[in-house]
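User: Okay, second chain of the day. Same drill as before: sequence in, structure tokens out.
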Amino acid sequence: MKSKAVVFYAPEQLELRDVELRELGPDDVLIETYWTSISAGTEKMLFQGKLPPMQMTSYPVIPGYETVGKIIQKGENVPESALGSFVYVSGSLGYVGVNAAWGGASAYIVSPYHKTIRVDAMTDLSLGLALPLGATALHAVDLAEVSRKKVLVLGQGAVGLLVAEIAKHFGAELVVATDLNAERLAHSSANIRVKVDEHNLVDALAGMLCDVAIDCTGSMKAIEHSFAHLAMNAKVILAGFYQRIDLPYHVAFMKELTFVAAKQWRLGDLERVRDLIARDKINAKKIFTHRSSAYNGIHEAYRVAFNDASCLKMVLNWKED
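Assistant: Same drill. Structure tokens below.
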């Protein structure tokens, strides 16, 4: 079977082309894609040819790890009840003659059934796209143990916005959010929002110190600047991705700071965040700021997703021409 898919065929070169799907195995399902979203982090690095060389990152390659669609065929070992259900899937390796990193940006996807997560309970099924970033944010908040604490969230990109939402849901006493982008801060549910290149965080906090900082920027500079606003024995959650850790030790020493690296999510976190979204406990819709057809204007959609600071997440709609 053939499917239309987004293919990166050389650095900074992409097209929508026909690809061949492998046949379904007994434990597989065929998913008809309704929506995919574009990652402005890892997918951009893949597009630019900046990811470590591996088979999965070698051109030609299908990107995408945020996909929601409907199961339309199943293997013999998959329960009958799966047919017709809407699921989130983190991509696919089910292609012939093209690599997949991560393979989700395709009109049809072959995936093992156990790698799908049902999202039928969501009022807006497209919000299933938020599961991986939501689970990443949830895991960081779990590690931070935010209940009755003052929480400083560095960065209000998609993950940072969800961290602020989830921290408030789990009983943070106060959530303070910082960013350099006013539009991103405007989306934030934090109690205090500070555009740090224009306003002094010391003034905004009025001398108050925070019990935990959750970094969603990936910036050593942002983390270092947060130290002045942390209390003794505060915890710093590293929820970005970093080439190296380079921080002034003497400040961490004087305040006995604890540093915790957050690696994506734990087993069950995808389902937990799905249920939070389905029950309207957190607002995940705010991170999807831009939408485009998957068939028309695909080059512009990726340009905006990768280069427009106002674009938190771009959604590609595969069900409209």
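Residues 205 and 229 are 8 Å apart (CA to CA).

User: Thanks, on to the next one.
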